[in-house]
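note to self: the first set is below, dont mix up w the second
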Amino acid sequence: MDKADFGLIGLAVMGENLILNAESKGFSVACFNRTVEKVDRFIEGRAKDKNIVGTHSIEELVDAVSTPRKIMLLVKAGAPVDAFIEKLVPHLDQGDLIIDGGNSFYGDTIRRNKELAEKGILYIGTGVSGGEEGALKGPSIMPGGQREAWEMVKPIFTKIAAQVDGEACCTYIGSDGAGHYVKMVHNGIEYGDMQLISEAYYIMKYGLGMSEPEMQQVFIDWNQGDLDSYLIQIASEILGVVDEETGTPVIELILDKAGQKGTGKWTSQSALDLGVAAPTIAEAVFARCISAVKDERVAAAEVLQGPTGTYAGDRDEMLNAIHDALYASKICSYAQGFQLIAGAAQEFGWDLHFGELAMIWRGGCIIRAHFLNRIKDAFDRDPGLKNLLLDPYFKDIVHQSQDAWRKVVVEAVKLGIPVPAISSALAYFDSYRRGRLSANMIQALRDYFGAHTYQRVDREGVFHTNWTGEGGNTTASTYVV
């Protein structure tokens, strides 16, 4: 019997669907799962009569795959990945390849890449985005590792990935942890997108008093223009689903506690580590955190008072303003994400091509949107672009959207409606466009209480002021910006 083109460990939703995707594209796959009963169910169920081999042990899996072996892990991030690597290594030969297709932390991927390279085994940390549908029909794939490892998987990955305009939504990202880092930031941008959409929905629902069918039509209309995206599309579909038992829109029956798996938090932590401003992504994470304390919020609602009522102005005018605010905020969120990727590339020595990243996100993945073509165009115009806001197209959009953007934030504040992502995006824009910020006062305060020193606008060097007349000339040993 011919051996499989590659092996896959992990038969959860993503694993099963990715195997079926690969088999439909002409590849044979051997599979294994820690709970071996899942293997049998899969082989006798969705995989029946397909070119898929079920195995019941690591040894059997490795033996079922052609050499040099390509074994993909789609298991929970963290310790489970290390555990399977430890089990695999004794059965692999030099030149074999392990692929981690889960949402692993990029630092772990860097470590694993180095450890396995010392044993002669190749390793690719591969971000896979698209959820269940993407895995089955074609996801966005972001592989990072040795280039020779990429060449081994390129024929498979480029065929099973989503295809847009005849191009695969997959490209080599960079060395060691680059693929998982880019996937992490993709997820951080996804957090931002979802929070921005939820805030637009919330303003329509509680600020404009709109019904679900009315809001559904707004999202349908938005999806025909600049906001055309997968998330806007499925938001419109969600608003149209009614619970058969109660006759209530399902969205109204869903508890307002948002879950998270950690990639948004990792993105925000990385931004802090690298000193890159990503406030909209961070606010999206914090919004999920405050949603989680549901009991506290219900109790607080009984004692804390704020504005009530709905918007008294022209509804259509406000809807247009929400559209513009959402688009401008989305631009800022992506600008933050790409600045973060640029910061990581510099920190870790990754040779990344930002226009290509935008292109592989156009299909398959959760943040796929027509808007991404504009990002590719921006980096084509200027490969060294420091910030998307500086590109002529995006600059014009945010300039045209400013009045509406500010109107939405102001009216939301007046109505007591929380819009942390939209307002933080506006604050980011206002901060980035100002040549002088309030940080001079921060430095003065730091120097006053801790002799942390400061720089001056009129001369070079580092300075300290004896603010009270009683301090000495001793200062902190370092000045860090």
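second set (the one i keep forgetting abt)
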Amino acid sequence: MQIGVVGLGRMGANMAERLRRGGHQVLGYDRDPHASEVPSLEELVGALQPPRAVWVMVPAGLPTEETITALAALLDRGDLVVDGGNSNFRDSMRRAGELAESGILFCDAGTSGGIWGLSEGYCLMVGGPEDAFRRLEPALEALAQDDGYAHVGPAGAGHFVKMVHNGIEYGLLQAYAEGFEILEGSRLFPDLDLRRIAELWRHGSVVRSWLLDLTERALSADPTLEAVRGYVEDSGEGRWTLQEAIEEGVPAPVTALSLFARLASRQDDSFAMKMIAALREQFGGHAVRKR
């Protein structure tokens, strides 16, 4: 099929390339003129044959909002917009309704696979009308691993499922991080080979996973992670997952604690930790480390 891709960063460019390898005709636009294949969105839309399909891969929030608003003014009834970024599912539900007023179809495609997707294939969680999904399916087949895509529900469902997926990811990452910190900090066994342990666990262990594969890879490149600063960003999806858990009354302590651990990583000298140390001194006479 013919498809336009808006956003040719690491993810978008790799997805465009995988689509081409799958035999699809792809035309890409990016705000960076050095990356873009056409000079403007107008040129992109004009070069596509109706009914058009445009896959958006730009950062969530304002960039996605501006891009889809601009496309809405250029596309015609029967055209299809796909948001493959990490948008909030409620925004996707709203955008689907707004586009539908002009007869434009919308799918939200939660996309997992990262920089490995080009070679390994992606996992795609798609929300939207059934007919739009079926029309998009040839592209999904080219992008995904075997059995790596599904129509999960109406508009917004794709990004909702991806949001929860990322919430689970937070917890998995935190569990690995805490386990390896316990190993690394052991006073009884100070010479443990963390890379070797990661490699061992990859074979037959109940904790083996792709994330463990990547753990071994990271430790192989830098056994003490000396070059890595312990500062962890969050994309927002862990926060959204936690908000939905609160709204639905679902206990999600692992997700909550893993999110707060990321926030704590950004505090080199946490006031909260200072307060705890000061209070322990006040009530128990415990020693306080001074500057």
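remember for set 2: The first helix runs from residue 10 to 21.
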